[in-house]
Every structure is written in C-alpha cells, then in structure tokens.
Amino acid sequence: MIIFSYDKTLDGLLCVIYEAYQRKIFPEMLIQSGEIPPLFVDQLLEIQTRDEIVSKTWGYLEKKMPKESINMMHAVWLSEQNERDWLLYKYIKKAIDSRFTGHTDFRDEVVISINDLAKKVYKEGYNWKQFVRFKKSKDGIYFAPVYPIYNSLPLAIPHFKNRFSSQPWIIYDLNRDYGFYYDTKKVIQMTLERDNEYFNSKKINENLLDPKEILFQESWKKYYQALTIKERINLKQQKQHMPKRYWQYLTEMQ
C-alpha cells in the first residue's frame, strides 16, 4: 500500500496531487502528518505544502475544470466530513485523467457524492443569509452567534459585507470558535477568548446589549404575536421553510 501524509489542508491536498503526478506514484490512502500509518505499508511519502505548488496546481485545475466544479470543491472541503480529502482526490484525479464533464456527470459515483455534499454546505450557507439576527451591543457593534453543522459561514460573509456595509458587526461560529469582524471597511477573521463576556451559553450576554436593542426585541416579539393567527399555525410547513435548528437565532421564536 502506498500512503501519502500531509497537513490535512486544502492547499496540502493540491500539493499531494502535484507530487503524485510528478513522481508517477499514486496514493491508496491519505493520512495526517505525524499520524501512525497502518500495517503493511509499502511506501510512505511525506508531502510538504508549498505556496508555489499550490498556485501552480490551482491554475492548472481552473483551466481543466468548470468554475462550478472548482466552487464545489471548496464547499466539499468546508463540509469537514471524514475522508473529504480522499473524495476530492478522486474527483480531481478523474478531471486530470479523462475528458471530465464536471459536476454534471451524474453517471459517476464520485461526482454524485461531490454534488450531494456540496449542496448541503451551500444550503446551510444560504440559510445563514436568512436566519442570522444581529443584536446591538453597548459598544455599538452588532453581534450574531451561530452554530453551524458545516464550516459554511465563509460562504455567507460576502452577503453580510454588502448588505450591512455601514455598520460594524461580528458573526461568530460557536461550534468552531472563530468568526468574522467587519469594521465598515474590511472583514477580518478573528477568535475570541473562551471566557469572553459576550457569551452566555450559546446566546449573547444580555447585560452587554444596548438598552434600545432590548426594547426593540420586546417590541418585535409583541408585533409578531399580534400578527399570529393561532388557528392557522402549521408547524410542519413552518419547519419545512424554516428548519427548527435556526429558531434559536430568531428573536420572534424565543
């Protein structure tokens, strides 16, 4: 068995692809650098991630593959699912070795798997555009905690940068402990300390909210309740259009 070990990053995977074709040695398994390999290994190669190789490989793939296929590769990587790297390795190798028709070749199991996984990540990224709710803190920053299944938040950030371009905001992934801060000029990826005063479990500490924000939330809840016709409530249909796991972010659903 031939095994390649690398740093388990997308850039590292591109270097794996490059080295495999340069050496004409193709792995049967990919493992993390430093991970103990299985028994009966014929050859173990440690692949280093190099910026020049990453750029060169991306440039080649962008010429070889449709743009949508490239985008789907990014989405699959953001899924953080087990063996996503092996799935992408087979996908890229297929593109290089054959007349690849990309993400529309639904006769191929690898293409089907890539499509299915990418769609799940795309859907969650799209849902953040609808269900993120900012709350204004006393320091004037609008803050929104989220808890994604996939690492989908980066897909939604361009939307918020354009939609809320005149106000500073933070959207924070509590599941992965990182987020994005927008200072009205640029977006910066950032990490808050675990015991940061912003957090109270998975919610914002209400003691840090602007008093007008608290008043607005209470007014919005009353407005929502006043419009609700109890006899016409259809929870099944509501969950189809607004999955229940997003309700925790919506003021009117608290």
Strand order across the biggest sheet? 4-5-6-7-8
Q: Please state roughly what percent of the residues sit in beta strands, choosing from under 5%, 5-15%, 15-25%, 25-35%, 35-45% or over 45%.
A: 5-15%
Based on DSSP secondary structure assignment, what is the total number of beta strands?
10
Number of helices: 8
In N-to-C order, the SSE pattern is EHEEHHHHEEHEEEEEHH
Return residue spans where pLDDT drops below 50 for at least 5 consecutive residues: none
Shape label: elongated
The major β-sheet equals:
5 strands, mixed
Instruction: Give average pLDDT, whole number.
Output: 87
CA(first)-CA(last) distance:
55 Å
Query: What number of domains?
Result: 2
Helix content: 40-55%
Give me the oligomer status. Answer: single chain
* Rg calculated over all Cα atoms: 23 Å
The SS-based structural class is: alpha/beta
Pfam family, one: DUF4130
Protein name: Probable DNA metabolism protein
Domain DUF4130: 83-252
InterPro entries: DNA_repair_put, DUF4130
Structure commentary:
The protein is of the alpha/beta class and about 250 residues long. It folds into two domains: about 1-125, no CATH class; about 130-254, no CATH class. The chain contains eight helices and ten strands. The longest helix is centred in the middle third of the chain and has 23 residues, at about 110-130. This is Probable DNA metabolism protein. InterPro entries: DNA_repair_put (IPR023875), DUF4130 (IPR025404).
